[in-house]
Amino acid sequence: QNKVDIMALQRLSVLDEESNEVAFVELWKKTNVIIIFIRHFGCIACRAHVDQIWNKRKELRSKKNKVIFIGSGTPASLKMFKDYLGVKKATIYTDPTLQTFVACGMLNGLKYLVGSKSLKKMFELSKQGYKNQITDLESGSHKQMGGVVAFKDPGQVLYHFAAKYLGDTDNPNDWPRED
Questions:
Q1: Is residue 153 within 8 Å of residue 31, measured between CB atoms?
Q2: pLDDT of 62-98, one tens digit each?
Q3: Pick from 7, 39, 37, 38: which is nearest to 25 by CA?
Q4: pLDDT tens, residue by residue, 128-158
Q5: What is the largest CA-CA distance in the chain?
Q6: Which of 118, 151, 137 is nearest to 35 (CA)?
Q7: For residue 7, what are the CA distances in angstroms to 98, 102, 118, 151?
Q8: CB 167 within 8 A of CB 118
Q9: Residues 3, 162: contact at Cβ < 8 Å?
Q10: Residue range 31-50, pLDDT digits in tens
Q11: Per-residue b/e over 91-104, b at no fewer than 16 CB within 10 Å?
Q12: Residue 31: its pLDDT value, please?
């Protein structure tokens, strides 16, 4: 949890699909929030993760956790991502600068992307019907890893998970619950 730089997050913002800036601190105001960082809008593992979490949204909402996704591509690629997955009502932002990823302790580098665990996960997800879709540079950073951070107002970190390879996800049952 000390991997999250709250001071940096207080001055950072993310973008919505219309390119409007939203202050990061607004994401956790008056609520608990689970922020799921997705590395790339075209990534097979990111698509699968968003799909799986979105399908659990009613269960998660009943636990009083607001779920927000943050990617690293352009707002236009964010819009295509939402359309492709059919998650138009999902709260998804993007941070092409990757500053919020850094401030939240997400890993970055080719060594995390390339490896047997990443390849194995891509193969498994492909067999389940998931696909890579958008592959241009506007879709996000290929070297950026995702993860999950849970916050409680006023910026208290309740949970932290940083993916170590493509498709490395945590279990939503490990997320903090407040009923």
A1: yes
A2: 667 789 999 999 999 999 889 888 899 999 999 999 9
A3: 7
A4: 776 666 556 588 888 899 999 999 988 899 9
A5: 42
A6: 151
A7: 16, 12, 32, 14
A8: yes
A9: yes
A10: 889 999 998 888 778 788 88
A11: ebbbbbebbbbbbb
A12: 85
Instruction: Decide if 63 contacts 178 (C-beta within 8 A).
Output: yes
Instruction: Map tokens 């927000």 to a residue.
Output: 68
β-bridge mates for residue 169, sequence order: none
Q: What is the mean pLDDT of residues 158-174?
A: 88
Residue with tokens 């979105």: 54
| Closest residue by Cα to residue 157 from 108, 103, 93 | 103
